[in-house]
Amino acid sequence: MDVRRLIAGCGGLALAVTLSQFPEYAQQYTQRLGGAVDELRVITEDFDRSAAEGGLDRQGALARYSISEDAFLADRGTAMSATFVRYDMLSQTLAQIEGAGPVERFQSLPAYLDTDIGRRTLENYRPAVPVTVEGILYAGAGFIVGYLLVSAVVRFMALPFRRRRGRVRVTGA
């Protein structure tokens, strides 16, 4: 076995291990996202219920906050508006992620990453052995791509050091 194949095999193995972790990260991210959506749902439903008990809808209640002379109440109204926007955005993101297939999730997840949730997921991420079909497929794809990429890089870097074959120099006599 030549050195290039050994190095390419190591590169393939490294990418296989890395990509095999994606399904686990995606699962942990989705769980955190789902937890955030659940908590925001509780806050939203409680606010809407309180507003209804006061004879208002959400927009009417928020309008009351905004016209208040009390800076604290006006700020709470602004904060609640931001909470509702975040709830809607995270709910849509969760629905998209849950409805996506493995390849679609891989392609789309970076666009969905909420910086807070994504960062906290990475901070608390625990690697897992891929025993699902999805994990094994990611590992296999990672090995193939890693092997090919590293092999190509090694081959390219070795070009200046290759011996030229097939040329025979004949000196005149």
Automatic annotation (TrEMBL):
Taxonomic source organism: Devosia sediminis
Query: What stretches pass through the bilayer?
Result: 136-159
Q: What is this protein called?
A: DUF2937 family protein
Q: Which keywords annotate this record? A: Membrane, Transmembrane, Transmembrane helix
Family matches, as Pfam families: DUF2937
Q: Kindly give the InterPro entries that the UniProt entry links to this protein.
A: DUF2937 (IPR022584)
